[in-house]
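Contributing: when you submit paired examples, paste them exactly as shown. First protein:
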Amino acid sequence: MDERLFDLTGKVALVTGGSRGLGRSMVLAFARAGADVVIASRKLASCEETADEVRHTTGRRALSVACHVGHWGQVEQLADTTYREFGRVDVLVNNAGMSPLYDRVEHVSEDLYDKVLDVNLKGPFRLTALVGSRMAAGDGGSIIMVSSTAAVRPTADVIPYAAAKAGLNAMTVGFARAFGPKVRVNCIMAGPFLTDISKAWDMDKFRERARTMMALGRGGEPDEIAGAALYFASAASSFTTGAVLAVHGGAP
């Protein structure tokens, strides 16, 4: 295999929700593959921690930007800051998300509903529109949505989140058509990963369910997202666009 297929030397990758969990793993994978990275999340200090790790372990440039992707004004500032600092974006990952639980669906407030849709759907739409249009007018690029298996197998306690992630799956196909042929737009539909979110799970119940219902019998480690992310970010996926790739350990 030609390892240059996955080489990101000279590229710039922007990752929302990039300071922890799956986002952090993708940031580090891109940097190790040669890319300079922009790390965006609501907490600047957390972004700086990941940026320092990138600089110390890979020597790549790393820019930290505080951004709440649910606010279009902040999304626009993120895009402008990135282009001002680097002059380009070659890889965009819409990874930031939130999934607050509720006890009964009738207790979902308008505020909670709006927050979930804003972060998981509205923000990625606006950032993809801004960055994708510049990519299409320039040298092209790759855009990666991070969805969830809840998009196709929603449970009763995450209905707004599941609807937003289903929207991301649909936007993947729509944006692939809008920005092709120079820009590829794909989606990682993630299953249960053992990130900070999993700290709120009943792990005994989860392990038993995983053992009996998932083909691999376990949850994913955050670094296990890196292969799919590198595939979509790099020339390895040069003929892949509008695709939704399930990375879920064989979850039913």
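Second protein:
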Amino acid sequence: MALPAEEPATVRTPLSRERVLRAAVALADGEGIDKLTMRRLASDLGVEAMTLYYYVKNKDDIIGAIVALVMGEIKLPSRTGDWKAEIRETAISAHDVLVRHPWASARLQASAGLTPERLEYMEAILGCLRAGGFSPWQSHLAYHALESHIVGHTLWIASMALPDDMSGLVESVLREVDPATHPAFVEHIHQHLRASGDTDESEFEFGLDLILDGLERLRTAA
């Protein structure tokens, strides 16, 4: 009688620093950066916590490395293309990346020191502005206006945690507000339903284009 075939052994993906960091990003994205501990990360990877120290120094090392990974997802501008189109594409890319990783905005602002990834990001944007005809001072002002919009809007989205379907939240708010005394506010709340639907331009892009148009006028007038 033939013996039953043996079940193939489960092939485990070898552990590496990259795999540890990717798992850390997934954990932070899914449950928040506060849930990222060495013990929890090891559990997700199916190893003992001490095993992680072969690949990372400590939790601070992990956080610094995953922030760098996130920065690496942003499409940087070229100095040879149209400055406005290049900066717009980079700003939208940065916003999309930070929305995908809602924990990253605050970490970028809190991190001490200048990482290679942060330096590359700043150099690319500032270099694009200078190549586009902005003076050093104008480039300084433009960079901070753009960065404030990108980070500020992303932090606002993360703090609000608005649902995809706004109808229930809007109805709840409207039950508490008298339209006779606060007509402008009620009108504003109704616009959230429109903003959550299919629109040609997002609220982020609307603000971004106002900034870019203003920068273009600044550059032309100089």
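If you have annotations for the second protein, write them as plain sentences, like these:
The chain has two domains: 17-69, 72-221.
The chain has a mean pLDDT of 86.
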